[in-house]
Amino acid sequence: METRYPDEFRRDAVRTATAMGLTRPQAASDLAVGLSTLNMWVQKHPPDESVPTRRHGASGPYPRTTSAKPA
After folding, report:
1. How many Cα atoms are found within 13 Å in the side-chain-facing hemisphere of 52?
2. What is the pLDDT of residue 33?
């Protein structure tokens, strides 16, 4: 039997999977959804580009930019 999730939950799940610094398997586990389901949602509903995303290995809450000159 297929479980239907509200659109708001899907959007929040995509945000969690892309902006929280978690791996997809970790995010899927935390959200209690299947990994393939979460991957499908991320493909269908790309994250809001106005919200900065955390890149794996980044040292802060936002991705590094290349425009800053080293001191």
Report:
1. 10
2. 94
- Write down the domain spans for the chain: 7-44
- Is residue 3 within a helix (H) or strand (E), and if so which, with residue range? none
pLDDT of 23 above 60: yes
- How many helices (H) and strands (E) the chain has is answered by 3, 0
Task: Answer for the pair 64, 50: CB distance below 8 angstroms, yes or no.
Answer: no
Cα–Cα dist 27/2, whole Å: 20
Residue 9: predicted pLDDT: 92
The rounded distance, in Å, linking the Cα atoms of 71 and 56 is: 24
pLDDT attached to residue 41: 92
